[in-house]
Amino acid sequence: QVHLVESGGGLVQAGGSLRLSCAASGSIFSTMGWYRQAPGKQRELVALITRTGATTYADSVKGRFTISRDLAENTVYLQMNSLNPEDTAVYYCYARRIGYEHWGQGTQVSVSS
């Protein structure tokens, strides 16, 4: 059974930093990453990373967020710097394997102005 356990969310002032972690178990995943959903908005891509280290970022986070992955620990990280109130959302861990997509339970990130 696949489990994705997120940690690292919280409240931070604008300009601050947070680091999210997502520990996966139960399978090997080709791609892992993060999506987010703000109140009243659709869930959107934040960043993805493949097993070979190829990355994809949303334009809104390029240069501020960095995604990384520890294959041995089956964990994906999201370092978020220069946070602004528009980054406030529930952040969801995402993992993909052949034929399946999996989601974490979400972790709240709130950025105060």
Number of DSSP strands? 11
Overall 3D form: globular
- SS content category: mainly beta
| Through-space gap between termini | 40 Å
Series of H and E elements = EEEEEEEEEEE
Radius of gyration: 13 Å
The major beta sheet can be summarized as:
7 strands, mixed
Give the % helix.
under 10%
Write the layout of secondary structure elements.
Elements: E1 3-7, E2 10-13, E3 18-25, E4 31-37, E5 44-50, E6 55-57, E7 65-70, E8 75-80, E9 89-97, E10 100-103, E11 107-112
Parallel strand pairs: 2-11
Antiparallel strand pairs: 1-3, 3-8, 4-5, 4-9, 5-6, 7-8, 9-10, 9-11
Put the structure in a nutshell.
Helix content is 0%, strand content 58%. It has 113 residues and is mainly β.
Task: Provide keyphrases for this structure.
58% strand, globular, 113 residues, four-stranded antiparallel beta sheet
Tell me what the structure shows.
The chain is mainly β. Helices cover 0% and strands 58% of the residues. It is built from no helices and eleven strands. It has strands at 3-7, 10-13, 18-25, 31-37, 44-50, 55-57, 65-70, 75-80, 89-97, 100-103, 107-112. The strands form two sheets. Strands 2, 4, 5, 6, 9, 10 and 11 form a seven-stranded mixed sheet that branches. A hairpin with a 2-residue loop joins strand 9 and strand 10 (100-103). The protein is globular. The model has no long low-confidence stretch (mean pLDDT 97).
